[in-house]
Amino acid sequence: MNGGMLQGSYQSVLDARNRDEFRGEVVRFAKQLGFETVSAITVVDHPVGDTEFVAVDNAPDAWRDAIEDVEGMRLDPVMQHCKRNSVPIIWDQNTYVSAGLGDMWETQARYGFRSGVCLALHMPEGRHFVLGVDRDQALPRDRGEVTRIVADLQLFAVHAQDAAMRVLVPERLQPERPKLTPRELDSLRWTMEGKTAWEVGSIMGISERTAVLHVNNAMHKLECTNKHQAVLKALRLGLIR
Q1: Whole-prediction pTM value?
Q2: Residue 171: which pLDDT band, with cuts at 50, 70 and 90?
């Protein structure tokens, strides 16, 4: 998978407008990375009450039926690792055998889940994002290739979690987004296009000084230290496209 394809995948998942588009981008990325199946899970912890999970995947229906009958699935060593760590886990049969859960691996292996990589991003306000890719073959023996796979997955996860929180998590559970004025949003859009403050002012029919003021106000509301950070955060939050 070359750099251009990777870069396209990162931007495409950020642009996902709904659950189906998000799922499509996640599945496409996983297959380009060399994995047949993938799951992306958003987790929101509540101060009182149950934790809320929202997931998308392309697992076979037969596998869904099977896992309902596997006792102790909550003890899955991969998920237990992700629950406690931000470091990715590279897993195979030995991961389950070492945890005394060889039978669990045998069950999932029948459905193509023999090896994979899984990671979790733990964010403020009790929000988490878990991304895992799985396949029927063993992982590459070349350590450099495995390292590249993990790095690609980590970078994709950073982009995917922003989209997941926007399109998967119910609006009532989403952090409040900064309220930018139409002028502030326009100034960020033109800044994203590489326009200078003078050019932004000319396009919007305002003075250069006013254009700078709009960008600075947007930076302040987005809690960013420069205009480039502000543009990126506005993109992640879905305020601009």
Answers
A1: 0.72
A2: low
pLDDT at 67: 66
Count Cα neighbours of 128 within 13 Å in the Cβ-side half-sphere: 20
Strands (E), the chain: 37-44, 52-57, 89-91, 115-123, 127-135
Could you say which of 3.90.1640.10, 1.10.10.10, 3.40.640.10, 3.30.530.20 is the CATH number of the domain covering 182-236? 1.10.10.10
N- to C-terminal Cα separation, the chain: 26
Residue showing tokens 């992982």: 139
Q: What is the DSSP string of 188-203?
A: HHHHHTT--HHHHHHH
Give, in degrees to the nearest 5, the angle at Cα 25 between 218 and 7. Answer: 65
Write the pLDDT tens digit of every residue in 117-130: 999 999 877 889 99
80, two tokens: 């237990």
Domain ranges, ordered by start, for the chain: 3-173, 182-236
102: left (phi over 0), alpha (psi -120 to 50) or beta: alpha
Per-residue pLDDT tens over the stretch 29-73: 999 999 999 999 998 887 776 788 888 999 998 887 766 654 556
**Long-range contact set of residues 97-106: C-beta below 8 Å, sequence gap at least 24:** 99/75, 101/72, 101/75, 101/76, 101/77, 104/70, 104/72, 104/73, 104/76
d(CA 72, CA 240): 44
Question: What is the C-alpha to C-alpha distance for residues 175 and 145, in angstroms, rounded to an integer?
Answer: 37
The CATH number, out of the four listed (3.40.50.300, 3.20.20.70, 3.40.720.10, 3.30.450.80), of the domain defined by the range 3-173? 3.30.450.80
CB 109 within 8 A of CB 67: no
